[in-house]
Specification:
The protein contains no helices and 22 strands. By secondary structure, it is mostly beta strands. It is globular and about 45 Å long. The two termini are 16 Å apart.
């Protein structure tokens, strides 16, 4: 089963400095049929104007993954963590018992990100933050795990949940496969390009909610960059 959520059907909120699209119910956007997909709770497609961003605010008990599509995002939190994450790279914040942070686009051009929230499988842990580069050449033609709750994924950023966040870059005509399994939830979004997922067309920034598909075969109809969450 593959349910396509076209980009034009997503929730929307434009605050001037922030143009946000919501794949799932978030803030003022409420759609009861789009509350979550497995443990995946939020997937926001955010466009952030130059020299603007999210001032300090708090989170708890959530795994928050930021995939930078264009530009860069600068993080600072009350645990003393700070860093700048650039296009193609990933940062992860495990909110744990509570953390306050800010996320700013301090660049001279627009920044575009996917912000992904996944429900944790444990509570009461100390908050943490980390970031890592993931060169696009390393995931050319295949899925690479960017963040994971599984110890075996030693090259991925750690998250506290039964899930993986994966990325792939495909040239037109290339196919990549991923073994999802019959009882898990996949959610795939092409950051760039158009693809077919098990024969179903998925456009740029559309969402594809996938279930009961043991193997996912993604074929690029044009050069494409993909992000996917595999969760319980």
């Amino acid at each position: 089963m593959i349910d396509i959520r076209p980009f034009d059907s997503l929730g929307a909120a434009n605050h001037g400095w922030l143009d946000a699209k919501h794949h799932f119910s978030f803030a003022e956007y409420y759609e009861p049929e789009r509350m979550a997909w497995g443990a995946l709770r939020v997937w926001n497609d955010d466009t952030i104007a130059a020299n603007s961003g999210f001032p300090a605010h708090g989170h708890a008990d959530m795994e928050i993954i930021t995939y930078v599509r264009e530009g860069a995002i600068t993080h600072q939190d009350n645990q003393g963590n700070q860093g700048r994450t650039v296009a193609g790279d990933v940062q992860v914040m495990s909110a744990g018992t509570g953390i306050r942070h800010s996320e700013y686009n301090l660049e001279s051009a627009t920044t575009r990100i996917f912000q992904i929230w996944i429900l944790p499988n444990q509570r009461g842990a100390a908050p943490s933050w980390g970031a890592k580069p993931f060169p696009k050449d390393d995931r050319s033609g295949r899925f690479v795990t960017l963040a994971s709750g599984y110890e075996a994924d030693v090259d991925a950023l750690p998250i506290r949940t039964d899930a993986r966040v994966l990325g792939a870059t495909l040239k037109a005509g290339e196919t990549a496969e991923y073994a999802l399994g019959d009882h898990r939830h996949g959610y795939l979004v092409p950051s760039k390009g158009v693809v077919e997922v098990n024969g179903v067309k998925v456009g740029t920034r559309d969402g594809a909610a996938i279930q009961h598909e043991p193997i996912i075969r993604v074929t690029a109809l044009e050069d494409a960059e993909l992000v996917m969450v595999d969760s319980v």
